[in-house]
Amino acid sequence: MTNAVSFSSVSALEILDSRGNPTLQVRLETKHGPVVAGVPSGASTGTREAVELRDGDPDRYGGKGVTRAVANVDGELAELLLGRDWASLAELDQAMIELDGTETKARLGANALVGVSMAAARAFAGPEPLWRSLQPEGVEARLPVPHLNVLNGGVHAPNDLDFQEFMIAPVGAPSLPEAVRAGAAVYARLRALLRERGEVTGLGDEGGFAPNIAAPEDVLRLIVQAITESGYPAGADGVAIALDPAASELYREGGYAVAGETLTSEDMIDRYAQMVEDFPVWSLEDGLAEGDWDGWQRLTARLGERIQLVGDDIFVTNPGIIAQAIERGIGNASLIKLNQIGTVTETLEAQRVSREAGYGQMVSHRSGETSDSFIADLTVGTGTGQLKTGAPARGERVAKYNRLLEIAAAHPGLPYGLTPGTYRR
Fold this sequence. Notes:
alpha/beta; 14 strands; eight-stranded mixed beta barrel; three-stranded antiparallel β-sheet; 37% helix
């Protein structure tokens, strides 16, 4: 990102995300043509995330409209960006942060800022692939293991399942195309098994099935069956499992509500430990609530040498919070979401902090998505080796997997797989 960039037009449009809620599309005009970005939006959110700006008008989209954020792009942000040359994305992002003037980007809206930042990143990339322009110095680009959300619960589905995401990860696949094929095969077999059981095969927010199965262990048994009946080993040599219980959503009055029971932090840790014994679970995201830091320390001490423990709601892609967690021995990997922190530059900084501490990284979509495939390039360029972006179904999810396939075809020399040393089982 060494060439200066200028803009002749800056605008935003209110569009719909994959859940039918309003979000932004940002368009920047450069001398080489337009660059566009679609802004994602989450349903399961951490309390310390950067703030989306919503209109709050109950007569329009139930208060979820984003015309105020659109106006901020068309107004103050356009005034900032136009009429000057920008030397780098970092310079532009910092100027937007200072213009907003709040710690959480609440004045102009993180949804406004991140849309401009993503589009600007494409402008700075110019004719080279976006992933290459996002690649930090000294970091090896890498095609990631896709983590495909094949069964949904929690706030992502209207069923009785409390755990939010059950993902399959083809860690043993020899290439990205074979990983995508494995994911699609297991997904198809899982659909067939659900039908054989008389379960509904409707989809949750992220394209996974949403059957009325309450116990997470029953879901894990079903997924293992789908993996093996698809012809793959369940585990490191084939397809492993990743979980996102989204425990902050389960936490009520000092306990965790799971399948009709109220569990303590220690109960949850014991249950995860048993799952790791009984099933090929390699990664656990948000196993405990974002405020349960003591519990997180005990979870990390108990399972941190055995599996990946990913912080999402507790870290919110915030470099400062991640640094505090590292110091306290919490988790061993960071979930990376652009709109949690609000600019591409700050996202890259969160990744740097994680990488230098030896923490793994999993780049992630949001439950409310657009067809924008930015995170596929971000994952490849920053070499995280892991991307979660939903099921191998629904256009907004498949767009990311298809972008990875394009990159793999155009750059056959790129390595595929988890970063060395990440897999702990």
